[in-house]
Amino acid sequence: MRFDIESPNGMKLLAIETSSETASVALLLDDKVSAREGGTPGTHARFVLPWVTELLRESGLSLPQLDGIAFSAGPGSFTGLRLAVSVAQGLSVGSGVRLLAVPTLEALALSAGDGFKCVCVDARMSEVYSACYEVRGDVVSARSNIRVSPPAGLNRPEGELASWQGCGSGFALAAVGELPWVADLGSIDSALTAHARQIGRLGCLRLAAGEGIDAALASPIYVRDKVAQTTAERLAAGGRA
Question: How far is Cα 95 from Cα 97, in angstroms, rounded to an integer?
Fold first, then answer.
């Protein structure tokens, strides 16, 4: 468990992130954030609800006492996104607590701190998810739309490249590293991922702005509709049947 003085909002909010390699759950309470994180892809479902139970028990709160439940809405792992949505929906239906859908790439940009962020995440199937943001404190402003494309189609950020930081697993891909402009970025951190702490911080801003969705309307941001490749497509891309 980790505690960070990050949330001066005075809100009680639960946050869930399961679209990354590591799952995380955070509880934002007054000026403190408590969190659980761990697991590997395919195991997240075993941990998320027990972590929620532990965090609530330690805080002395029950679900109905929360102001909101924020979830990582994507884009990201299809299985992970569906898990986050389904857990958030179940908790909301049972408690009546409002849901907040937070774009995963925004949370990843926030985790990198202030500045201009070119976010690029490996989407598998020889594609990447990407978007550009400006981060100032807890405010994340979009500088482009979220898109999915082959690595070679990753858009160059506008303006002076040295002022941009590359963030996310997509920058670990050889095809992205070979783009002529990538070497001119100010810095690159391919290990950065979204975390429930940042999902919670962005969820608090949305809650304060009066946003929120009914549990029945909660859904992931897929960006693309195709979930998996056929065997022929995997073989053509150099994979295994």
Answer: 5
CA distances from 190 to 8, 105, 112, 193, 241 (A): 29, 13, 11, 8, 28
Q: In residues, how long is the chain?
A: 241
Band the pLDDT of 224: cuts 50, 70, 90.
Answer: confident
CA 27, CA 103: separation in Å to the nearest integer?
A: 18
pLDDT digits 0-9 by tens, 196-207: 999 999 999 999
% of the chain exceeding 70 in pLDDT: 89
Half-sphere exposure of 147 (CA within 13 A, CB side): 14
Cis, bond preceding 75 (omega within 30 deg of 0): yes
Cα(216)–Cα(219) distance, rounded to whole angstroms? 9
- The arrangement of strands across the sheet holding 32-38 comes to 2-4, 32-38, 23-29, 12-17, 68-74, 99-103
75 HSE (CA, 13 A, CB side)? 23
**CA torsion sign, 186 to 189 to 194 to 196?**
negative
What residue type is 215 in one-letter code? A
**Single-letter amino acid, residue 22:** T
Phi, psi of 206 (to 5 degrees): -65, -40
| Packing angle, helices 104-111 and 196-208, rounded to 10 | 110
In the block, residue with structure tokens 């598998």: 124
